[in-house]
Amino acid sequence: MKFPKGLLNALLLQLLLLQISTALDTISFDQSIKDGEFLISKNETFVLGFFSPGTSSNRYVGIWYKFSDDMVVWVANRDNPVNDTTGILTLGSDGNLVLLRNNSLGLPLWSTSVSVSSSSKNTIAAQLLDSGNFVLVQQESQNVLWQSSDHPTHILLASMKIGLDRKRGIDRYMTSWNSNNDPGTGNCSLRMEPNGSPQLILYKNEAKLWRSGQWNGIQWGGIPGMTPNNVFSISFINNQDEVTVTWKVLDPSIFSVITVDGSGQIQQLIWQGQQQGWVAVWSDPIDACDRYGKCGPFGNCDPYTVSGFNCTCFPGYEPNSPQDWDIRDGSGGCKRQEGSISMCRNGEGFVKMDHVKVPDTSAIKLERSLSLEACEKECLSNCSCLAYAVADVRNGGSGCMTWYGDLMDTKQFTEGGEALYVRADALVSAQYTKKSGGDSSANNKRLAIILGVSISVTSFLIIAVLCWFKRRRNKGRREQPKLLNDIASGSRSREDLPIENDVDEQRGKADLPFFYLSTIVEATEEFSSANMLGHGGFGIVYKGSLPDGQEIAVKRLSRNSGQGVEEFKNEVKLIAKLQHRNLVRLFGCCIDKEERMLIYEYMPNRSLDLFIFDKNKRSLLDWGKRFQIIIGIARGVLYLHQDSRLKIIHRDLKASNVLLDSSMNPKISDFGMARMFGDDQIEANTNRVVGTYGYMSPEYAMDGLYSTKSDVFSFGVLALEIICGKKNNFQFEDSYLNLVGQLWDLWIEGKALDIVDSSLGQSYPTHEVMRCIQIGLLCVQENAIDRPTMLDVVFMLGNETTLLRPKKAAFSFKNSAPDSSTSRGASSVNDVTVTVIEAR
Ligand SMILES: *[C@@H]1O[C@H](CO)[C@@H](O)[C@H](O)[C@H]1NC(C)=O
Ligand SMILES: *[C@@H]1O[C@H](CO)[C@@H](O)[C@H](O)[C@H]1NC(C)=O
Ligand SMILES: *[C@@H]1O[C@H](CO)[C@@H](O)[C@H](O)[C@H]1NC(C)=O
Ligand SMILES: *[C@@H]1O[C@H](CO)[C@@H](O)[C@H](O)[C@H]1NC(C)=O
Ligand SMILES: *[C@@H]1O[C@H](CO)[C@@H](O)[C@H](O)[C@H]1NC(C)=O
Ligand SMILES: *[C@@H]1O[C@H](CO)[C@@H](O)[C@H](O)[C@H]1NC(C)=O
Fold this sequence. Notes:
Oligomer: single chain
Strand order of the largest sheet: 26-25-33-29-34-31-32-30
Number of domains: 5
Helix content: 10-25%
Bound molecules: 2-acetamido-2-deoxy-beta-D-glucopyranose
CATH class of the largest domain: Mainly Alpha
Number of helices: 19
Strand content: 25-35%
Distance between the termini: 106 Å
CATH architecture of the largest domain: Orthogonal Bundle
Number of strands: 41
Radius of gyration: 31 Å
Shape: globular
């Protein structure tokens, strides 16, 4: 019997395929894989084959990681499972990949469905690439006819695109699985909205759930913490061919995916080895304000309000339905204020809302060539224009976005975000201009506080960087972290460094002590995690040891402070000159490219919170020590407010910012940080959000107004914490959970001593403790004008003067006297300086 030669070859190949199918990454024309056979990518990262998800017995064709077969990154027949194990994936006679059941005459369960010219179909092959992409290629021309990355399921791998290919008419978007047992098309999808200024939008069915904000030239405007970094990069393309976004992992040894799940969460996962598996490093939406339209049209959502209600109206607007707002439902949004005057050629202006996720940009008008000034004119000239903003924040800002309809889904950030200019009638805009102290930009409402970048994003960066460091270290000392590579490898000499003076010559000479990066790298053992002392809002702190044995604490500042090298140097010089026995000594700093570090004296006893909030260590501080600590802190703050050449408002006074030297003398740290970073630059992490909340004065928390009196407030809280050995956990709902409220109630009942730290035993002078409580309560009074100055405080602590009776404490509910019902808000603090720091 004679076989045609071609057929014989094909048969042989088929046999071969059965034998060693595990080693192949390609199916050629007329070949197939059966259930139980696999394709494996060249470097063995990905596998393609049949699988059953979870507890299901259905069979699907999918791609997964070889080292982690539960991470299925793509599914072919997600809505058409094979109900037995007879499935066959074939490169069929028409040049398409098709999924069939053996011996079944039915329609294919799945097919690539591209049109292939008949002349070229036997030169077609399907290959599983190392990137996880499954491609159908015309081998001679290397023409890609179809690829799995154009049809994402619930996972986005690095270098896969989301968005519109305008030439081919493909819209790539991610869709969740139905459940862990069913990869079928689910209800949540992440899509590119190409209209207006493009944004990523997460949908649940047809409803918008979350919005990334527009691409502002550097990043998504609604994810302010996801700034360019050394671990991942994001690139956005918008031209006549496509509107797409892709991301990349810069270190090829990191495996990472982005997923969308059925509950409407987007997550980025990193592979952390067999033991830990996939660990989430970023996820969105994360807080109530991420929910699309939470505060309705013309509403602004602030996740960190003290009252727990997150919605406010735009300047000049008021709630559509005050009743709903009373029951904390802001979704009805806002309307122009009753009785407001015309905003059409009637002296109207714009009020700046800073650090916001600008409203939905899908229906805006976008003009790329206009500057900010021209944009204002453009908006002013059309009476239907309700707001404008810069589209691209690079190079000082360019591109003009103007809004005409309802302004939906605005979110307040404490840092980052963009500025939105809202049209307001003559009256309102005059009000806001005045409020901001004559500053025409009307940036009155800067909640410049602590809370900063959304929690997830900050931890994303920290974790990403940490695990990346860990990996590096695991690979052995030979390899230095990339950040430091060019110095370590000698591709940059010491002479290239911007600053010449080494500390060894300079330390002690007072003027401007600069350290080399290499010195710090060595001192901290390459920022080893073993040397990490903690992380605060401004960055991570490491312990280090200089060659001469001097111990130091290195604060490695978070990036993107936006401040120039010269400005930063000047600030450090100024701050370094502040010297007081109750302030931590700043030895100097280190600047290298993006790196900014501050070098402090090292405090062996770490920080006060480790003592007063620790049930064992608490007893190490008797009343005498505590009183000395309270006085020391008061003196340190007074020096900042009054005695130093610069008037400095600390703005983040709290137990963890008070360090203790070897004799338990208190030393304030992080002073001058607000100054060094400017209002806008204070970053945050989870601890800080929680930790600092309890120390915030009402006018600061609600209106962003800070003054020396806000520091007095924080000092009061701190003093009361030291006396009671308890944290002032802030809980609006229940004043009994917040120390200040609780203490206030007991004070009124004359039982304040009940709450004094029990570890003090009975061995304290009742009179002195009562006096300190009273001084503390005077500092936390609701109205800033009622609070004493720091000078008063130091005086009261040191002398037996008669003390005033404190009025109602902020955030407490029991009133002491009728006069204390004054509402919180701007009116109560009008007399207080709104300036942070004034040069003297
Ligand atoms: C599997 O599905 C086919 C049709 O798609 C059907 O004819 C067959 O009975 C099913 N088998 C089982 C075991 O359900
Ligand atoms: C289809 O099934 C038949 C009989 O069950 C078997 O002999 C044949 O090898 C199968 N074909 C493929 C391509 O697996
Ligand atoms: C395999 O190739 C991919 C893409 O080129 C790369 O990201 C990955 O690190 C490689 N994996 C291994 C184990 O070499
Ligand atoms: C998806 O939405 C539909 C319609 O709202 C609902 O019936 C279905 O249960 C949802 N499916 C999942 C997996 O949530
Ligand atoms: C306001 O936002 C916070 C933070 O996301 C959230 O915990 C709180 O429940 C929100 N308040 C309301 C009334 O939704
Ligand atoms: C104002 O802008 C809107 C939206 O672009 C446009 O439809 C309208 O014609 C403009 N009106 C005037 C007077 O230019």
